[in-house]
Specification:
By secondary structure, the chain is α+β, with helices and mostly antiparallel strands. The protein has one domain (4-230). It is built from five helices and twelve strands. The protein has helices spanning 4-16, 42-47, 117-127, 173-185, 227-230; strands spanning 55-56, 58-60, 63-65, 76-82, 87-96, 99-105, 135-144, 148-150, 153-158, 163-167, 192-203, 209-222. The chain is globular, with a radius of gyration of 19 Å. The relative contact order is 0.22.
């Protein structure tokens, strides 16, 4: 069964099949990380503090929460995202006993807390009691299109227009990467789009249950595609 994004991608390919090849649009926030030695820019400094949102969503084996204060779970929610505001990062975690500390960088040079990223990686690799490999991720700020209440506490409500931050996990980056790749192929990676974010239960090799986000395109709110890709 095809999705709206699949249909858009097919249409985009049909529209450009007889046109000269053009370079794909670049989302400057989704830069290649790991380019150690690159100079700081205003963009990298602006991104260093993470997302500017009102609450942060989490996902696990049971479902999605729009806040750490929630006790209940929802299966899905809808929001609008300007794909130019999505920021790629490289992350690493340090585990000492039961304590797990997470670090990230948006430019491969400076950590999100202002620290030297090479030193962060070296410290994690030297002192973590579990694997401390770097991993890719994405910070995705969304604006809710309707209100959502905690299923176990109706007083805990996030109304429409609330900004929600979604950060992909180590295992959760793959679904976003696949989805974003389709968006880019359709020329939508600099547009404003309405998405449905769905809970997807998974099980790892050890038999442990966990959950990730899956993404579905619902609507193009502000189409920034080149004319030849719009159909």
């Amino acid at each position: 069964m095809s999705t709206k994004l699949d249909d858009l991608l097919a249409a985009a390919k049909a529209n450009v099949q007889n046109l000269p090849a053009v370079s794909p649009q670049t989302n400057t926030n989704l830069v290649q990380t790991g380019s150690y030695g690159a100079p700081l820019t205003m963009d990298s400094i602006a991104n260093s503090g993470g997302m500017d949102v009102e609450t942060y969503s989490t996902v696990n084996a049971f479902g999605i929460r729009l806040s750490k204060d929630w006790t209940g779970f929802i299966d899905e929610f809808e929001g609008v995202v300007d794909l130019r505001d999505v920021a790629a990062f490289m992350g690493i975690q340090k585990t000492v006993g039961k304590s797990v500390e997470y670090f990230k960088t948006y430019d491969g040079v400076t950590g999100s807390r202002g620290e030297n990223w090479q030193q962060v990686v070296a410290d994690c690799k030297a002192n973590s009691q579990k694997d401390a490999s770097t991993y890719p991720g994405a910070d995705i700020p969304l604006t809710l299109t309707q209100g959502y209440a905690d299923p176990k506490d109706a007083k805990k409500v996030y109304e429409a227009d609330t900004t929600v931050g979604l950060t992909t996990s180590i295992t959760g980056f793959k679904p976003w990467k696949a989805f974003y790749k389709k968006l880019a192929q359709a020329g939508l990676n600099t547009s404003v789009v309405k998405l449905k974010i769905v809970h997807s239960p998974r099980k790892n090799a050890a038999g442990q249950d966990y959950g990730v986000y899956e993404f579905e395109l619902l609507e193009i709110v502000n189409d920034n595609r080149p004319e030849d890709l719009r159909g």
